[in-house]
Design a protein that fits this description.
The strands form four sheets. An eight-stranded mixed sheet has the order 9-10-11-12-8-4-3-14, with helices on both faces. Helices cover about 30% and strands about 25% of the residues. The longest helix has 16 residues. By secondary structure, the protein is α+β, with helices and mostly antiparallel strands. The two termini are about 45 Å apart.
Length: about 425
């Protein structure tokens, strides 16, 4: 039997008892799986009054752990009679959609320098920046009762009831304030039996780090991957300093519990007392068997980068005059052109078009470069392979480092792969 720890949450002068389930809580909640085939074409779902609600509060601030918890619940829990809203936050991180290109969406060099992880989630949508100043919310329901508008309207009502903040839901299902400042983006995953809709709310996020982490740069990438739509953003704390992540979590949580499961209406205190309340959850294998394996997959390079849709890169770099043969006069600008095709995060094809001026000044080795690069990750792994290929021509020489022309080519290549 599950061990239960009781805590009290006090708000608006009222005291509510909250059950915190440990160890066997996950097993108690699991009654069906998304992998179990349906025996009937249509399920008979309960009436609204038979559905209870819970607010799960993740005790982790690790992005891969929280995404794994989200996926575990989606795969294993039965939400037929029990709808769940999970609230969670992360340390600084960039999260891309399932079908996005990380090299296109994020400033990989900045993330590497600041040791900010990049994660790919299972849902679609665009790229977002998380830190401890974000509140992330996930709504779990049966597939048939997925209702994004309901969830967003609920958040909108919580902002007004709790803080007097007026907001609007736009055509993209973003929540905006003061006409056009985005405070929340949204994405979803719809399975055969279960669905979830999640969004993030900017409370007091570091907007400077957000801007640097998602900064656009010259990349030369052509792809059919989903691209993010850039928007002006605002923090809720800039509108009302009383808004904190904790106070917002409480406001949205109680709005969720006081609202009937299928339509927007204020059920008040009476409905709150009929719900299952707030529950702290500890995302570990002890609570959720198999969670560690899901986390390992979500933080792997093959998932975060290798799942990127195929893309091509084309970049052109003018060659500095001092690197060209001094005895020659050229009628056109001498340019190094780098073209690549990248599939599953690996270089599938590459062409280095070396201008005559660079060859005439002594640079050579294109064939060996192409041979060494194919199959390498589109990262510093490819840069190292390039440098090794160019060094091969020095094997019978006392010179064991790249000359100026080779360093120029390596620098250009480094800008293309944006090393991680």
């Amino acid at each position: 039997m599950a061990q239960i720890m009781m805590r009290k949450i006090v708000t608006s002068g009222a005291c509510f008892v909250v059950g915190v389930t440990r160890r066997s809580s996950s097993r108690c909640l699991v009654t069906s799986s998304n992998n179990v085939p349906l025996k009937k074409k249509e399920r008979v779902l309960p009436a609204e009054g038979e559905i209870t609600k819970s607010v799960f509060m993740s005790q982790s601030t690790d992005i891969y752990t929280n995404l794994a918890l989200e996926d575990w619940m989606y795969r294993n829990m039965d939400f037929t009679n029990h709808h769940v809203m999970m609230v969670w936050r992360n340390e600084p991180t960039v999260v891309i959609g399932r079908h996005q290109n990380p090299w296109l969406e994020a400033n990989i060099a900045h993330l590497t320098e600041k040791d900010i992880p990049l994660a790919r989630r299972n849902s679609g949508g665009g790229t977002v920046y998380h830190d401890r100043g974000n509140l992330n919310i996930t709504f779990f329901t049966p597939r048939e009762r997925y209702d994004r508008k309901y969830n967003l309207e609920l958040i909108k009502r919580a902002l007004f009831r709790g803080f007097g903040i007026k907001s609007v839901i736009n055509k993209r299902d973003d929540i905006v304030v003061r006409d056009n400042y985005k405070i929340s983006g949204t994405a979803a995953k719809l399975g055969r039996l279960t669905a979830y809709h999640h969004c993030t709310l900017l409370v007091n996020a570091n907007k400077a780090d957000l801007s640097k982490s998602l900064a656009k740069r010259e990349h030369g990438i052509q792809t059919k991957a989903t691209e993010s739509t850039r928007s002006a953003v605002a923090n809720l704390a800039d509108i009302d300093h009383k808004v904190t992540v904790d106070s917002l979590q409480t406001a949205v949580g109680y709005e969720y519990l006081r609202t009937p499961a299928l339509h927007i209406e204020d059920g008040g205190q009476g409905l709150i007392t009929k719900q299952r309340g707030f529950q702290f959850v500890n995302p570990t294998d002890n609570w959720f068997p198999g969670l560690a394996e899901l986390k390992q997959e979500l933080q792997s390079w093959d998932w975060c980068f290798g799942r990127t849709p195929v893309f091509t890169v084309s970049r052109t770099f003018p060659v500095p005059a001092e690197l060209l043969a001094p005895s020659k006069v050229y009628t056109a600008t001498q340019e190094l052109v780098i073209n690549m095709t990248v599939e599953k995060g690996l270089i599938d094809d590459v062409t280095l078009s070396i201008p005559p001026g660079l060859i005439e000044s002594g640079f050579h080795g294109e064939a060996s470069v192409i041979t060494h690069l194919k199959g390498k990750r589109f990262t510093s792994e490819a840069l190292n392979a390039l440098q090794d290929a160019m060094l091969t021509r020095h094997e019978n020489s006392d010179v064991k480092k790249l000359d100026e022309k080779e360093q120029f080519v390596a620098k250009c290549f480094d800008q293309v792969v944006n090393t991680i």
